[in-house]
Amino acid sequence: MRVCLRGHGCCQVMAKTLLRNIAMFAIISGSSLSGCARENSQPGHFVLQPLGNVDEKLLALMRRFAEAAYNRPCKVAKPQELPSSAYDTRRKQYRAGELLSLLKDLAPTGAAKVVGITEKDIFTRQMNFIFGLADVRGKPCVVSTCRLHQSFWGEPENDVLLYRRALKILYHELGHTFGMDHCDKIRCAMCYHNSLPELDVSYICFCPSCTRKLEKLVGRFPDDRDAKLAALLTEVGLPEDAKLYIERKEGSE
Known about the structure:
Collagenase (Catalytic Domain)
């Protein structure tokens, strides 16, 4: 098992078994996965699985974004409680690895990917906290929005900033489940970052190189993909991110 952690601190890669490759990714910090392996285009739908209480407006936005970005139908499942066995009472956080295992069990038949969304703080043994874990070329990944809230840091809440961060992590984590590698371009959503401010520098958009890689992995994108993403991002108050899709569409015409 190959583990890539992206969290508060440096990224570590460990080989543990030859059966499969799993990359666990946390959004603050990171390291390159060793290559972007091509896989056949995966049929089936995506499932967003709320773990505990999650804002319905945010869930709806993440569903719409996942559908447009990956050209897959996406459903929101009924909320599931986080398992008490995954809770570390000393740290007051949930073990992300156990949540990933839970998501594998919860994945319905026919689902290509299942994304756990939680408002709770999560961690792994190697990191103080993480914002996401992804099983590379597998079905599950998990996203924590806990530290994406400005209120977590003692600042006034900012819904638009929360949406921007959450969509970026969702895009990145799902990319890993299709086998995407980290990118060295700081503005690309597949880039890794060492801090939340660095995360905010990047866009909710893959660079041209990562976009081409993703299209090879998931299948040809429809002609109106960029227009749909631009419209969605504009709708929720993210015009700078939307602009990249508009410019890319205009440049291809």
